[in-house]
């Protein structure tokens, strides 16, 4: 494990970047410290991820995972709060009703929070539990089997790695990820054996729930129930399965840096460790796990086409002494064949379009060219 396993006696002394500035793409514009690059490559070449470090009985985190001092100082500005994100009961939807009360709750949550949890959504608890267990099995199986999926090629449909932006970010996040891109057809044989059946069953249910949510969001915008669907908002899916091991020094790093999601909508399944936080009115609000619930959040592309009616907000995952925490995010990316712009019915002379057209392929390329912790907003690039 080399220098990654050295004891870290002083955080300030060990955080040694040469002077660097950040470009608009989130990449370091100045030459990276050769020592840091060496440590990043050493970690990457192990192909064991963060779990590999934990399995080596680490008592302190390597400095490539340490948040910069300015970020740690900024943390002191945020207040602790006990408020909760909205929780919406979808029981009536399962009975075939798009009742006005639920539409109004979805409208309020999507405009004011950008986040909400749904309960009684129709997906059996057994399906949810098997998906969580499947992700756990994948990450805790024999390393040599897991390594077969290790890749940084975004074109590979099923890939495992730690930090997709490892060589772009200011610090690495304390998590490993199995990513499953879902084109028109994915051969089940491409999925890991240990979570193949669970993944297939989960995807089937989550796509159906996505259709219901897009109907609710359409009506919340005052449009026909099928409006967002006709725009291809429910097309293109990527399943991102995160594994957050217990961290020996959680106060010095993050499970996922502050960011907003690309695409149109995210449906998130999380295990029962409270780590997900959403930034609401200048405060970090915990999204406390509710058994059987799913977390829903608006993506950047949906904020764009709703002309800022619906909000894509920043969120993060804090590291934790407990673990592992599991989360499974289904990102609805939109149709690769569509060009997106603010919906005509949501604009007027007094409320003109605030964004220009977006070619989805270009938008996705820009997302992957940046680091997750890039301070600038991808949406800002498309503002008129």
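Q: What amino acid sequence fits the structure above?
A:
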């Amino acid at each position: 494990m080399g220098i990654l396993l050295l004891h870290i006696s002083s955080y300030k002394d060990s955080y040694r970047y040469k002077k660097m500035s950040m470009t608009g793409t989130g990449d370091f514009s100045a030459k990276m410290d050769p020592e840091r690059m060496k440590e990043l490559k050493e970690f990457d070449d192990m192909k064991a991820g963060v779990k590999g470090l934990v399995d080596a009985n680490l008592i302190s985190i390597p400095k490539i995972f340490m948040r910069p001092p300015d970020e740690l100082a900024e943390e002191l500005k945020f207040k602790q709060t006990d408020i909760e994100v909205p929780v919406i009961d979808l029981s009536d939807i399962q009975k075939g009703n798009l009742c006005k009360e639920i539409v109004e709750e979805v409208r309020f949550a999507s405009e004011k929070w950008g986040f909400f949890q749904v309960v009684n959504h129709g997906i059996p608890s057994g399906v949810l539990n098997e998906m969580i267990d499947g992700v756990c099995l994948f990450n805790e199986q024999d390393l040599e089997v897991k390594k077969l999926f290790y890749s940084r090629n975004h074109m590979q449909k099923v890939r495992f790695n730690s930090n997709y932006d490892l060589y772009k970010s200011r610090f690495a996040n304390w998590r490993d990820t199995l990513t499953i891109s879902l084109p028109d057809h994915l051969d089940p044989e491409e999925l890991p054996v240990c979570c193949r059946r669970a993944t297939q069953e989960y995807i089937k249910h989550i796509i159906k729930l996505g259709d219901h949510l897009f109907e609710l969001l359409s009506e919340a915008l005052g449009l026909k129930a099928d409006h967002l669907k006709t725009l291809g908002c429910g097309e293109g899916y990527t399943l991102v399965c995160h594994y957050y091991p217990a961290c020996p020094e959680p106060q010095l790093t993050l499970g996922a840096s502050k960011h907003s999601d690309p695409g149109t909508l995210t449906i998130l399944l999380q295990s029962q460790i409270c780590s997900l936080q959403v930034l609401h009115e200048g405060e970090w609000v915990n999204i406390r796990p509710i058994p059987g619930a799913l977390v829903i959040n608006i993506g950047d592309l949906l904020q764009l086409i709703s002309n800022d009616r619906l909000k894509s907000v920043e969120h993060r995952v804090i590291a934790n002494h407990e673990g592992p925490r599991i989360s499974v995010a289904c990102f609805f990316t939109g149709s690769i064949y569509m060009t997106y712009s603010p919906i005509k019915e949501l604009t007027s002379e007094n409320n003109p379009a605030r964004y220009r057209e977006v070619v989805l392929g270009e938008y996705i390329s820009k997302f992957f060219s940046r680091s997750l912790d890039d301070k600038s907003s991808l949406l800002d690039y498309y503002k008129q």
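Q: And what stands out in the fold?
A: The longest strand covers residues 237-244.
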